[in-house]
Design goal:
By secondary structure, this protein is an alpha+beta fold. It has ten helices and 21 strands. The chain folds into two domains: about 375 residues, no CATH class; about 35 residues, no CATH class. The protein has an eight-stranded mixed beta sheet.
Length: about 475
């Protein structure tokens, strides 16, 4: 009889320990990853370009979550694309420092076309010395976000901004043609056709207007810790020099809207706003249904306008959030082996002939599309027959997040959202590596820029079908945990 109170006390203390361990925590950090040596190569063009100026710095923005048992670290990097090996190296460093398994880390690129080159695509090749610094610098942000973990409430939700997203692929009218870089005329769509183009009839696909948020605030004082947003917009552009584009402008804007710089929060880890790229492979910020082009804007003006517009939607979403301090975190990761659309020997021979007579600029770069794609064909001859494509599915409470290392077409993102394993879902593109564009099989049949074989588009034509099927399975897995 005397032992009963002791057993009761142990059971009571055990419950307290479980409750304490299950406390939800969140932390965030933004680390500067701007090149320190200039000029630096910049992605985003078929001709390599260098810049010696920095309009606004590049960052790795990290958001760490812990449900008391499982952790997750989400990191969005200001870059056009981040190669798989950089992502893997950064995760390995962060995993050793934090104890969080690499499979519970996501590293993605924003897809700014004005950031320092990290992946060689077309005629923009990275600076090896800069690449060598990146794993440690990206990892440092992830590690600090994990160190900043504190008791928190978490929430997720959405609103819409239809004003900034337009499908950039347009149907060609019957009889109209668009020659591809290989001399073919079978394309039935044209990317970015221009205004009032008589050859096209209308957009060849939908858009996704959702602005999704995953947000955390401090349990002690309600201080905003971080907002991870997701919007399916390719990029905006408009600043000279290195620029993190509207992704960074949104990060600053949403912080201001939420009063994150309030003097009450002095001495605490600063708020981190993050914009991830959704499924925007065929979506941009130009409305070609208009008869004439909009007035020319000053440098950076369009970036500011888009950032403010999307921040409006994010602020509306914030106002509807339902906060909780109990949200299970779960992750799944898988490599899917997919075939490569390699050029045949005849393609390579023809490409070499084209290169021999293709014009170059003073820097030795090809200036015409035929030469540019001929170079890509020769480079792709050395690609393997198959490549691993890393997929991830994550769960935070009633939200699921998919991760695909491609420039994903919007139809795929909408298909995944429709599965709604837990009610809310968004997909982060350009995550954990770079495997080029991901058009649907139907869009492969239509042709167009995003399907032309190059290091920017090389996965098998059924890749989207296989990826979507695998991710649906993975999303159901994490939803059940």
């Amino acid at each position: 009889m005397r032992l009963a109170p002791v057993r009761f006390l142990c059971a009571f203390l055990g419950c307290l320990c479980v409750a304490a361990a299950a406390e939800f925590r969140a932390g965030a950090h933004a680390g500067d990853i701007t090149p320190t040596v200039l000029p630096a190569p910049v992605n985003g063009s078929m001709v390599g370009r260098m810049t010696a100026t920095v309009t606004d710095p590049m960052h790795a923005r990290s958001f760490a979550l812990h449900d008391g048992t499982n952790a997750l670290i989400l990191c969005v990097v200001d870059s056009c694309m981040v190669p798989r090996e950089i992502c893997e190296q950064a995760k390995a460093i962060a995993a050793r420092a934090t104890g969080v398994p690499a499979a519970r880390m996501l590293v993605s690129a924003t897809h700014s076309h004005s950031c320092a080159t990290m992946t060689g695509v077309f005629q923009s090749d990275p600076d090896p010395a800069y690449l060598a610094t990146l794993p440690g610098r990206i990892a440092a942000s992830m590690i600090q976000a994990h160190r900043n973990l504190e008791p928190a409430e978490i929430a997720w939700g959405r609103d819409e901004d239809r004003a900034q997203v337009f499908n950039r692929r347009w149907h060609l009218k019957p009889g109209a043609t668009n020659e591809d870089p290989f001399g073919g005329k079978t394309d039935r769509v044209m990317m970015n056709p221009g205004f009032a183009n008589p050859k096209v009839s209308g957009p060849a696909g939908p858009v996704d207007p959702d602005v999704y948020l995953l947000a955390a605030r401090a349990k002690a004082d309600g201080r905003p810790i971080a907002v991870l947003a997701n919007y399916s917009l390719h990029y905006v552009g408009g600043w000279p020099g290195i620029s993190a584009d509207y992704f960074a402008a949104f990060a600053h804007e949403i912080g201001k809207r939420l009063g994150a710089g309030d003097a009450r929060y002095a001495g605490k880890p600063p708020f981190v706003g993050i914009m991830s790229n959704g499924t925007s492979g065929n979506i941009n910020n130009v409305d070609y249904s208009q008869k004439t082009a909009p007035p020319r804007r000053a440098p950076g003006e369009q970036i500011a306008l888009v950032a403010a517009s999307v921040a409006d939607a994010a602020q509306r979403a914030w106002g509807k959030l339902v906060w909780t301090n109990a949200a299970p975190v779960a992750s799944a990761e898988r490599d899917l082996a997919l075939a490569v659309r390699k050029p045949g020997s005849a393609d390579v021979d023809r490409a070499r002939e084209l290169l021999a007579k293709s014009p170059k600029n003073k820097d030795g770069e090809y200036t015409e599309r035929a030469g540019i794609y001929a170079r890509e064909t020769v480079l792709m001859a050395d690609y393997p027959a198959q490549v691993p494509v890393k997929l991830q599915a994550h769960r935070i409470g009633g939200l699921t997040i998919g991760a695909i290392p491609c420039e994903v077409f919007v139809e795929i993102g909408l298909e995944l959202k429709a599965t709604k394993p837990l009610g809310d879902h968004f997909t982060i593109s350009l995550a954990n590596g770079y495997n080029g564009y991901l058009p649907t099989a139907e869009h492969h049949a239509l042709g167009g820029y995003e399907t032309w074989r190059a290091r920017s588009s090389y996965l098998e034509t059924e890749a989207a079908t296989k990826i979507a099927a695998e991710l649906k399975t993975m999303l159901r897995e994490v939803a059940s945990r």
